[in-house]
Amino acid sequence: MSVPHMPKPVLLFTAVLFSEGVSTSAFMPLLYNEIGSTAFESTIMHFVWSDYYEKEMGPKLRRVFMVYEKLLNRDELPDIKRKTDKLEQLFVKDGKRTVNIDPGLICMENIELATNKAFFHRVYLRNGVFVEVTLFYKHNTYHPIEYWTYPEYRATPVLDFFNTARTILSSPKNY
After folding, report:
1. CATH architecture designation of domain 10-169
2. Residue 139 region, left (φ>0) first, then alpha (ψ -120 to 50), else beta?
3. Cα-trace Rg, the chain
């Protein structure tokens, strides 16, 4: 028989997409202030996987992933999503975003990504926030899900980044 229990705390990450001309020094201090210190950050990557955001944000987009030190409970994700939505508004120019901040969770079994958009594979949490499982963990690594994992989350450097983050989460001090 299954007995309800609270899941163990997880790591928070943000995936920040930003326009040419925007420096990480513009948004990183705001994220540190709103969310907290980072355990580590990815290198800045050129966003080569899609042109979906170019109409709004322009060409030559870049992406950086940030993993935060403090563990959190999964039910805090909608609150974090609202904070990142407000931070994005600070970087709107001529009605268009120049910074896109997507928060998510690094869990032992998967990577979850928060969004404001409903779709068949997303589950509603609260306050207009949905969540999707973006990657699942099996055979010592995270794997994409065929029909909906975003292209950049399928890339080896991104998978390596999340696998490294998982080692932090699985350390004895956290579990």
Report:
1. 2-Layer Sandwich (3.30)
2. left
3. 16
Confirm if 39 and 67 have CB atoms less than 8 A apart: yes
Q: What is the pLDDT of residues 7-29, one digit of tens each?
A: 999 999 999 999 999 999 999 99
Q: Where are the domains of the chain?
A: 10-169
Strand blocks (E) in the chain: 10-18, 38-41, 45-46, 62-72, 92-93, 96-97, 99-106, 110-115, 123-126, 129-138, 141-144
- CB-side neighbour CA atoms (13 Å) of 82: 10
Average pLDDT over residues 95-106: 97
CB 99 within 8 A of CB 22: yes
What sign does the dihedral 75-76-77-82 (CA atoms) show? positive
Q: What is the pTM of this model?
A: 0.94
Residues 51 and 33: their CA atoms lie apart, in Å, by 31
- Stated length of the chain: 175
Write down the residue that tokens 């950049």 correspond to.
152
pLDDT tens profile 102-147: 999 999 999 999 999 999 999 999 999 999 999 999 999 999 999 8
**Cα 70 to Cα 118: distance, rounded to the nearest angstrom:** 28
The 10s digit of each residue's pLDDT in 35-46 is 999 999 999 999
